[in-house]
Amino acid sequence: MTERREITLTINGTAHKVTVEPRRTLADVIRDDCGQTGTHIGCEHGVCGACTVLVDNEPVRSCLMFAVQAEGRSIRTVEGLQQGEQLHPMQEAFMRHHALQCGFCTPGFLMLAVGALEKRPDLNDEELVDILSSNLCRCTGYENIIKAVRAAAADMKARA
Amino acid sequence: MKPASFSYHVPTSVDEAVALLAELGPQDGRILAGGQSLVPTMAFRMARPTHLIDINGIAELARLTAGGGIVTVGACVRHAAFDSGTLPGATGALLRKVVQNIAHYPIRTRGTFCGSVANADPASEWCCVMAALDGVAVLRSQRGTRRVPAAEFYQGVMATALDEDELLVAAELPMLADDTRTGFVEFSRRKGDFAIAMALVAYRLEGGVIVEPRVAIGGAEPHARRIAEAEDVLSGQAPGAAAFVAAAEAASAAVDPMEDINNTAAYRRGLVRTLTQRALESAE
Question: pTM value?
């Protein structure tokens, strides 16, 4: 019964042609088959948010989507944030505000925050905290993550 | 863990989907909509469907419409659709209040209203809305279409009237009158967790007294339901502390709460009292 399907995933604008079983999650295929290991996998059941990527610009848990479902969609991962030598304002803000310690949750937080702010640049503090409550940071560095996202929000608006 | 193997089917029409379901439903085939409950249970291998029928490619199921006094929620309408101000009136305002309580933002971008309704978790906010508003589940199969009211659709913990060859194509919510006041409050220990209990209330005022009261409780019992005892207490009373406390007391006495490792029945009964009162006090 192990059927396999040939699919093309578009990750950060690059097409990846892969052959996968339908049971493979988008998170696993992004990492193992497409070699984009910036996306991290924590709990594998949609609780921790480490695997958050943007699918058609919406933040989703890539462990709760099958790769076969992502064919024809635009997938963005942490590798796509940097433009040339220039870090994304969210990445810069995370460095400046010490918003990462071990760094395991960081790609998920970056994609969550970028996805949310691209959609709604005027999120207020309460809404930002509510959105950031989606993901877990086992180092519990939440205060600095909130500070960084708040700073990046202002920066993204200024650059827009 | 990783989900077990399954065969993947991608119908492009409802007819095709129900044809597949008629064939594969009896062989442990399942519908895949948002996947935010099904995929975790597959990752735990608590669910091992042999076939998944992915309905995300069926355009007509993505429709959310309001007309003729009914909000119709298609099977692929995501939770996040209720976040925006697109739905009118008191019903739109109520659904915007409720959706803020559902899981987290990246779950709301994928998970669906009808998926929650069909999954029938006792702590599902949308199941509580279906019960409170007397929603109707629209079930399609090759045998035809059935419209099942919420009070008959829910049968127990994650148990519904859905037959294995039936697809929940839409949920229909009768719209509340524009001057209806609504309130929704739930309690969970952490933001985004499954609620231990929730209360949804709605009422109108006529001549200064409460008419058409609705009180629904979710999370406390095997499935959400309206609590007639609490509604009877409110009917004809002036809104205020006396009526709200009495209604909350009646709701608390009427429920038969579930117990689990963290929550005794007495604790849930107390929560029902508190949440009903808060929902009534916050109704606007």
Answer: 0.96
